[in-house]
C-alpha cells in the first residue's frame, strides 16, 4: 500500500491510546503507559497496532503525537533544576503573583510555590522602559559572573525574563547569546520568545515553566524520533498543541509549554467535529481517562479558546490556586477523577476519591501489578460494569477478587461497608465531583448546561456519562465511535496551526495609525507562517486575527475577533463599535463616555479542516440481540440485577436498546442507565436519551 496511513498516539497517565487511519478505516488500541520511559509504551503499542492492521512501518505516512509529559512534570515537580534571570529588583515578582488571596477565608491557605526557588532567581543589572528607551544598559560582566553561579549550582535550564521584553527583547537575547557561549550545555528560554505579552508575572511564570520541562520533553521527543526511525518509521512527526493545532518536532522541543494540554485538546477537537456533523449547537464534552476527567463547553461547533491557563491547582475548583501560564489553549476544566483515581476515608469518615491516581504503575488493585488501594476502576469492576476478560481489548485480565479485597480493607473497618456498598459509594462520589466541576465551569463562563448534549469519550467516560448527565440536567448523551481512544482520534482531525501574540498598545481614537497596524499584522503573519510551513509547506492557510481590548483604565481585557477585511475608512471607529457590542453582550451594559484601547494582538494561521458530510437522519428502529447476559449492582435499588450485554460493532444503525444495559467494545464500555434509551445513529454513534415514560 502507499504511505498514506496516519497514526495518532496519545500518552495518558495510565494508558497510551493509538488510532490508525487507513483511508477512513480506523484501527485502534491501548497499551499501558511506561512513565519512566514513555517511548517504550508508544513503540510497544505501535507494534501491536501494525500487526493488527497487517501493514509495515513504511506504510505510515504521518505520526501525530500528544503527551502529558509536560503537565505531569509541572504537577509532580519533576522537571529540570531551573534558574530565572530577572531585571534587578524584581526577583520576587513571580512569588508575589497577583498579590491577592484566592480563598480569603482560609487562614491556612496553601499557595502553589514558584517553580524556581528564591536562591536561583538571579538579578541582572539592566532596564528598558515601556517605550523601548534603555534606562540602564545590560551589564554583560554581571551576566558572565552569573554563569559561574549557574555552573556551581548545577543548573540545567535557565529562563530569562526582563521588564518590557515583550516589545524590546534585545537584552534577553544578548544574555542568551552570552550564556550559550559560556555554558553551551545549558537549556535557555527567553520570555519574549515564549509569551510576548505585557504583565511580567504571567510572562515569567510561563518562561520558567517552559525552561523547567524543556530538558525532559525535548530529550524524550528526540529519543522517540530516533527509536521510530530505527524501526522503519521515517515519516513526519507532528505534535498536538494545547490549542488543538499541529506543530513540528523542532517547535515542540523549543516550546514544550505549548504541549501542556495536548491530549485533552484532541478530545475537544473530536467533540467539536461530532457536534458539527450531528447539528448540535450546544455541547458539553466529557473526557474521562485513567487519571483525569476533562470537561469542555462547545458552542456553535467550536470549543472555547483562551490564552490563560492554570496548572497544578492546590485547590480543585479555585481559580488562582495554581501556576498561571500564558499560552494558547482550548479552555476546559481538568480534575483528578479518572479510572485510576484512588479512593479512601479521611479523618472525618468521609469518602474521598482522587486527585491521586494509581496510574499504570502499580495501577488499580484489579490489575494485579502491586496496587492495593481501591480505585474507580476497581469500583466499576465490582459493580459488574466491566467485563474482566475484555478490558483494554483483552490486553489486561482484571482480577475482581483483588478489587473486592481492596474495597473491604479500606472501607470495611472504617465504615462497615461491604464490597458492593463501597464501590457504589466511590462511583457516587466521583460522579458528583465531575458534576460539580461541570456546573462551576459553566457558571464561570456565563453558560448554561440545560439543553446541551453530553459527548462522552475516553476509557471511563461512557461508563459514567448517563448518570453524570442526569445529575446536571442533560437529556441527551452521545458516545462517538471509537470513544475509548477519543483524544487520539481527535488528533487525526487537527489542522496544522500556530498562534503568536504581540503586545502593542493602540488607542482607538484619531491617533490610530492604520499603516502601523497593517505593518504589525504583516510581520506577525510572516512569523507565524514560518512555524506553520515547517509543519506543512503546501497547505492553504486560514487566518484568524483577534485583539485584546478594554475601556481605558480597566485592568482586564476582552478578546475580540477582528474582521480581516471591511474595517472601513475609519478603522478606529469600526473596531470600537465591535468592542462595545461584545462588551454589552458579556456584561449587559456599555460605557459610551470611556475611550477604548487595544493592549495586544493575536494572529493564528491554520490549515483548513477536512470537509465532512452531515449525519443522515436517524434510521428506523430495530431490536438487536444481546451478546450475553451479565449482572450489575444497581445504584437505584441497591441490589444486583441481570442486564443484557451487547457488542458495539454488532449493532447496526437504528439498533435501539432500553436501559439498563451494557454496550461493550475493545477500549471502553457504555452503560445505558435505567431511564435512558440508546439508539445507534447513521454514523455509528450511540445516542442515549432520557426515557420520559420511565417511572
Can you describe this structure?
- With 695 residues, this protein is α+β, with helices and mostly antiparallel strands.
- Among the domains are: 75-217, 3-Layer(aba) Sandwich (Dna Topoisomerase Vi A Subunit, Chain: A, domain 2); 497-606, Dna Ligase, domain 1 (2-Layer Sandwich), CATH 3.30.1490; 628-690, no CATH class.
- It is built from 16 helices and 35 strands.
- Strands 13, 14, 15, 20, 23, 24, 31, 34 and 35 form a nine-stranded mixed β-sheet that branches. A six-stranded mixed β-sheet has the order 3-2-1-4-11-12, with helices on both faces. A four-stranded parallel β-sheet has the order 6-5-9-10, with helices on both faces.
- A hairpin with a 5-residue loop joins strand 11 and strand 12.
- The longest helix is centred in the N-terminal third of the chain and has 31 residues, at 200-230.
- It is globular and about 80 Å long.
- The mean pLDDT is 88.
